[in-house]
Design brief:
By secondary structure, the protein is an alpha+beta fold. It contains 11 helices and 8 strands. The strands form 3 sheets. It has a 3-stranded antiparallel β-sheet with strand order 1-2-3. Helix 1 packs antiparallel against helix 2, helix 2 packs across helix 11 and helix 7 runs antiparallel to helix 10. Bound molecules: zinc ion.
């Protein structure tokens, strides 16, 4: 359904002609914008097929994604935003704009390069539960490399974590020296806000796991401003990161505002990165 709707939306946007006068949110050529939008919507539709019930246009001709929760979210609200505004109120286009880098990163990400930190809360409420109670009803126990943890069963998140756990257990059998990076686990589901903000943490939806934070620096606690001081990322074992990424998790180590122990189930970002790079 999403696939058919995508073609239709592309055609509708073209027929609608230039968007109504409003500040440009991107300097991309209209064709590139449409291709980017289709890639984004396809990645979202394939990742969250149950939560996304359809696509349409609002009265201003903007593409909206209809959610099972009854919410509608605008793909591109047309507002230019500063970094902190994208953290606070991103649209879907902002959320997917920075392509998640597959494979090792050679140097610290530049300003604004935090792929995955712009989260559209309405989408995750529709996917994982719109209230603490609804989220808890979707949590299941997962065997994660020999430990039981709670994770959200929606969108295949818990299944993906179980697969990560199996591969990780296999890796740790061969490489016991890596065990300290994983255990003791920092945790999965916890109802909390992101430190220093009023935004809900992805842990509150049960879609993220922290490995051992002792060996995973968090930018806020290191005392170093992002982009300054020694970079802790190169010391983090890439084998662990690759296993998570293979199953749809992004790594907080690829953010300029790094959080090395943090892995978050965001299949749409991995899908988009794979579409674009053919990897
Ligand atoms: Zn975390």
């Amino acid at each position: 359904m999403i696939l058919a709707a995508l073609g239709a939306v592309g055609a509708l946007v073209l027929m609608a002609g230039p968007a109504p006068a409003r500040p440009a949110s991107s300097t991309l050529h209209p064709w590139s914008r449409i291709v980017t939008m289709q890639t984004d919507l396809l990645a979202l539709g394939a990742s969250y097929p149950r939560a996304i019930t359809g696509l349409g246009l609002d009265q201003r001709g903007r593409v909206v994604v209809r959610l099972r929760s009854g919410d509608r979210v605008v793909y591109d609200d047309g507002r230019p935003k500063f970094f902190w505004q994208k953290l606070d109120r991103p649209d879907l286009q902002d959320a997917l704009a920075i392509v998640y880098p597959l494979g090792p990163i050679r140097r610290p990400p530049g300003p604004g390069r935090d792929p995955g930190r712009f989260r559209v809360a309405a989408l995750f409420r529709a996917v994982y539960g719109g209230s603490p109670r609804a989220v808890r009803a979707n949590l299941v126990w997962v065997d994660f490399a020999g430990q039981r943890v709670r994770f959200n069963a929606r969108a295949g998140a818990a299944r993906a974590l179980a697969r990560v756990g199996r591969e990780l257990a296999e890796l740790l059998r061969r490489r016991p020296d890596l065990r300290k990076y994983v255990f003791p686990l920092g945790g999965t589901y916890v109802r909390r806000r992101i430190a220093g903000t009023r935004r809900l943490s992805p842990h509150a939806w049960g879609m993220a796991i922290d490995l051992n934070a002792r060996h995973g620096a968090y930018w806020r606690w290191t005392g170093a401003r992002p982009g300054r001081g020694p970079d802790p990322r190169p010391r983090y074992p890439g084998e662990i990161v690759r296993i998570f990424e293979r199953h749809g998790f992004i790594w907080g180590g690829k953010w300029r505002h790094f959080d090395l122990a943090h892995f978050e189930y965001r299949p749409e970002l991995l899908l988009k990165a794979r579409f674009l790079t053919g990897r």
